[in-house]
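Complex 530.
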Amino acid sequence: MKPDQQNLWIYQLLLLIAVFVIWHALTATGILPPFFFGRPLIVLQKIWEWFASGKIYMHLAITLVETVLAFVAGTVLGLGIGLWLALSPTASALFDPYIKAVNSMPRVILAPIFAVWFGLGIWSKVALGVTLVFFIVFFNVYQGVKEVSPVVLNNARMLGATSRQLLRSVYLPSATSWVFSSLHTAVGMAFVGAVVGEYLGSAAGVGYLILQAESVFDINTVFAGILVLTGFALALDGLVTLAEKRLLVWRPAQSETEPL
Amino acid sequence: MTDHSALALENISVTFAARSAGATAYTAVRDTTLVVERGEFVAVVGPTGCGKSTLLNVAAGLLLPSQGRVTVFGTGLSGLNRHAGYLFQADALLPWLNALDNVAIGLRYGGSPKRDAHDRAREWLARVGLAHHGHRYPHQLSGGMKKRVALAQTLILDPDILLMDEPFSALDVQTRQLMENELLELWSADRKSVVFITHDLEEAIALSDRVVVLAAGPETHPIGEYPIDLPRPRDVAEIRLTPGFVELHRDIWHTMRDEVMKGYVQSQAQ
Ligand SMILES: Nc1ncnc2c1ncn2[C@@H]1O[C@H](COP(=O)(O)OP(=O)(O)O)[C@@H](O)[C@H]1O
Ligand SMILES: [Mg+2]
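Predicted structure with magnesium ion bound:
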């Protein structure tokens, strides 16, 4: 039987199981040293323990809060500053080289500075996430404003829009639609900021669990942490897809026909 | 004040600055005068690319002419033309608003409460035959439906002057004739002053009181004006078969033919 629309997920699941079986076979026979590659059964057991004992929930909640705060703050800042610079040629000309410079800087190196400024709690992670999210949103808003159809703009003006009304009814919706097209990347970046921040110095969060396990060479726990993070990222991405479907109804989808 | 024309373009010239170094400035319109009386339906025809949209943008106040003066009901125009409604050639609906909100947006800009605006918008949607399509977004409407929504969006504000830029040129022949008849019906109800741009001479004659023919660009200007004394009300499909129409068409086409050829040669050269 070949994979098709209906049974595709069965094949995808089989693929996952196969990877675990091969991983298990290689480490159990000693072809790959378990000290470096872990043992999948122990990894799964570790994950089970985390959830069964409830120990993981606190760490997941911390990582989630950091991600959400970084995402919201980065989006609001990116939207505001993006709109401002896109609509004000003078300001945009003035800031242009600095925006480019900060954007091309690898922002992870700011983590130590944020740790000094904001301490080892959640705020240093939020700050790191914000610097990552901000630029994605900013460039998309900027693009969104520049790409507003001049005909739509002129039409709104002829229908009597003031410049404030133009901002609200034309620029903002256009910019938001561009922001939404980068929502997956933005949420992903907020998550990266949170986890990397935790990994570089923290007292809680899933990144902290990984950091702790690594320092005692507990490779199984490191793998367990990575798997939990992956599942978490997938769940976040699913939520974003849902939000997108609800908020972008006005955008043409690929195809909207329904089979009889 | 009552003796003033609705819209007067006096000695208008439009020169576009060169976009890049080395390119020369382009004079699209040269010394053009066009007067539209109250309640008059004027059609402007000219070969593609001659400067029709440019001229209409000047009349709308969207484009400042390099030379000349625009007066609206006797008053010099500065800024946007607040007496005019503009039906654009390209899709101009706000893509993120559904049909009802698109029609209502002008009233909302003017400060009407949402409920009143929606009530009037529903009336207008019904008037253009889209009573049951208010919830649809522009991408869910056909080309003809979008034009109807755009027409309602403009007419709901009851402008004294209606500027239309090849509004039906993207539609198939049947839809187009339907829309032309609907337009004439709406227009006959309150006789707004209309400037209707088209490159289709038959459409121009069928709809208008007067046809103005523009020369091929650059430096376009009117090369002929023809009063259309065909009886109203008209049916655009039937009127094309009457002897009066055929005769007018022959006369005007005689003037236009050379310009169309010129325009064609130029577009080939570009
Ligand atoms: N903003 C502009 N800058 C430079 N040239 C322009 C601009 N707008 C229009 N033109 C030129 O002016 C001429 C007339 O354009 P347009 O009025 O759109 O023609 P039409 O509507 O009759 O097809 C064209 O040759 C076009 O390339
Ligand atoms: Mg045009």
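Residues 243-269 of chain B form the longest helix (27 residues).
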